[in-house]
UniProtKB/TrEMBL annotation:
GO CC, alphabetical: membrane
Domain of life: Bacteria
Keywords: Heme, Iron, Membrane, Metal-binding, Transmembrane, Transmembrane helix
Transmembrane segments: 32-50, 70-87, 108-133
Protein name: Succinate dehydrogenase
UniProt GO MF annotations: metal ion binding
Length: 147
């Protein structure tokens, strides 16, 4: 019994198309962001659910006083938001490329995915920035919730 080695065909450098290889960049992004997301998520979960008083500490006051008043946690949560949304959108783009065969619907779905991702990132960052600037919620009349 012999073991054969399968050689995959490679395109010589002289025959490759010039320009940016977006598929390769997307593949590399998924690997790097996946590792970073594991670290970001576990530290986020530890700091919110285990450290201090555990789950019982989580409330509006905790988030405003301990999380969003500290620039480190604002950047941490913003990075978590941006990396996770782009990572998920890139994964969905890969599924669309695998299962949608017609170029028109594939392009429409891909553009829709990236637009939705951009809108969610913008809205999420607006919330983080709004809490950093003014952590009060104006209620009806003169009532407001501040910490």
């Amino acid at each position: 019994m012999t073991i054969e080695t399968v050689e995959y065909p490679r395109t010589p450098m002289s025959e490759r198309k010039p320009g940016t290889n977006w598929e390769r960049i997307g593949w590399q992004y998924m690997r790097v962001s996946g590792v970073l997301l594991v670290i970001l998520v576990f530290v986020h979960l530890y700091s919110n659910l285990i450290a201090g008083d555990g789950v019982s500490q989580i409330g509006f006051a905790f988030v405003v006083e301990n999380k969003f008043s500290v620039p480190f946690w604002l950047i941490w949560d913003g990075l978590l938001l941006v990396l996770a949304l782009i990572h998920g959108t890139n994964g969905m783009r890969t599924l669309v490329n695998d299962y949608v065969y017609k170029p028109g619907p594939r392009k429409a779905l891909t553009v829709t995915l990236w637009i939705a991702c951009a809108v969610e990132i913008i809205l999420g960052l607006i919330v983080l920035i709004a809490f950093a600037v003014e952590p009060c919620i104006a209620g009806p009349g003169s009532a407001s919730i501040c910490v």
